[in-house]
Amino acid sequence: MADEEDELQETELSYDQKKEIAKWFLLNAPAGEINYVAKDLKEVLSDEEVYNEAAMEAFPVYNKSHMICLEMPSRAGEVIVSSYSEITENEYLDPRTAQVAIVDHVKQICSKVRPAYDEELPSSYIEEFRSALDAEIQRYVSESYPKGVSTVNCVKGKDADGPETDFELVVLITARKLSPQNFCNGSWRSVWHIDFQDESQVLDIKGKVQVGAHYFEEGNVELDAKKEFQDSTIFQSADDCAIAIANIIRHHETEYLGALEVAYSKLPDNTFKDLRRKLPVTRTLFPWQNTLQFSLTREVEKELGLGNSRNDWLFGLEIHVKAMYNKLVFTNRKMEKDCVQTAHLFKVPNVLSSVKDVKPKGMRDSSSLRSCLMTSFFYNY
Question: Is pTM beyond 0.90 here?
Answer without folding.
Answer: no
